[in-house]
Amino acid sequence: MTQAIDIFLQEIADIFAFTRKDALEMIVAFHEEMENGLKGKRSSLKMLPSFTRRPKGNEKGNVLAIDLGGTNMRVLAVRLLGNGKVETIGVKRFSLEKDIVSKTEDVFFDFIADCVSVFLKEHDLDFSCEVGFTFSFPVVQTSISSGILVSWTKGFTVEGVEGHDVVGLLSKAFKRKGLESLKLVALVNDTVGTLVTKSYANPLCDLGVILGTGTNAAYPERIDRIKKYKGPWDSDEMIINIEWGGFDRIKRTIYDEKLDRDSENPGNQRMEKMVSGRYLGEIARLIIKEAFNKGFFGAKAIKDYFSKPYSLTTEKLSLLASDGDTINASGTESISYEDIWAIKEIGRTVSKRAARIAATAIASVVTHMDRNLASEHIIAVDGSLFEKYRGFREHMEIMLEEIFQDSKDKIQLSLTHDGSGIGAAIIAASLSFR
Question: Which of 53, 54, 67, 74 is catalytic?
């Protein structure tokens, strides 16, 4: 049986291989989608104007930020000191449980308001201040302080929000909860926030990337290239929220197709379903389930453990990659070392492809900005996949080296902690500096 599972694992590795040739083809397609999106033509990349730009680094003030992510929400207060320096006054994390992200809009936004109230009381902070709101979902912004939700992603299904202004909905919740003195001045995507946070300290940063529960990126675009934007703007650049999780011109496997068919949003977020933390564990589970059905695994516990969709989380896969046995530790029938090894190999194959696709997406945006790689580029990256998944960052760097070869040193990946929330605070503060 050992030889049979080895053959199966090699077949899976071949199916999930993402080569330099694949990467170069993806870059061409990505450029086409970016250009179409900027012109307002049909594109799998939304290319959404953010109504903000990179900071100057001299912004100062005390600001509150709400950072709504995929699995949790954070409320934080920061003090901007100028000279690119930020001091965190306080931060508190709140879990976004299933019963919250699947309710109605009033229940959902009241929950956010309640969390803000708890934070302010715990840190004995003033109830009257400006607020930056990081909202990590696709919105069409009409100004820096308003945005219409296009569609939920990452498993969120809150009713009554799609097609509505999320700032308006949160402001109403603040009023219901007695927080009228809080002024929501900036609506920020998490990738925009990550870019702003790093560029506040280092002006060479020109790309912000999220690699966690979801995946996305933002970059500063020349205003003359944003053909679909007709309004006034007081700068030669505007940060664009790419929404690259929707990119759909990548070759897919039968496992990707099945995951997509059975997902909450079939046909959408194709790249996100191949790259992000919400889905990598599920792709691996589908492969493991097939391997069991072919008789490659002996323990019945494997069938039981992997029978339920999303029972193998990416977090568990990450722990396995770091030599932790999260499966036997869960109290199931003992699974052999050989089977655990095979499961790890499946996880490695799935995560390696994800990392190489993510790196190629980065290469696509960098070469859109700087086709000949004439300048240095610092890429601000936030998210648990990049930070915690063993080997993920290394696979990204290898892919970038394969793509750029002798010019690889001009691209630097920089882990940017809490970038999404701090960035919202910087943007909120920067409004008074314009």
Answer: 74
| pLDDT for residue 231 | 87
Q: pLDDT tens for residues 54-79?
A: 998 888 888 899 999 777 899 999 99
Mean pLDDT along residues 379-396: 95
Number of Cβ atoms within 10 Å of the Cβ of 95: 8
| Distance separating alpha carbons of residues 7 and 362, to the nearest angstrom | 33
CA dihedral 144, 386, 216, 256 (to 10 degrees): -160
Please provide the average confidence, as pLDDT, over all residues in the chain. Answer: 91
Q: How far is CA 67 from CA 15, 94, 127, 420, in A?
A: 37, 10, 18, 7
**Residue 338 pLDDT class (50, 70, 90 cuts):** confident
pTM of this structure: 0.90
Strand partners, 73: 68, 94
The yes-or-no answer on residue 74 being catalytic is yes
Q: Is 114 a catalytic residue?
A: no
Closest C-alpha to 240, from 29, 19, 37, 13 = 37
Tell me how far CA of residue 10 lies from CA of 5, 315, 368, in angstroms: 9, 24, 35
> 190, 260, 339, 382: which one is catalytic?
190
Cα Rg of the chain, angstroms: 22
Q: Is 76 helix (H, G, I), strand (E, B) or coil?
A: strand
**Which residues, in sequence order, are CB contacts of 237 under 8 Å at separation 6+?**
53, 54, 220, 221, 222, 223
Question: Which of 50, 136, 145, 199 is flagged as catalytic?
Answer: 136
Neighbours of 405 (CB within 10 A): 9
Q: Three-class SS of residue 224?
A: helix
Is residue 136 annotated as a catalytic residue, yes or no? yes
Look up tokens 């999106």; give the residue: 37
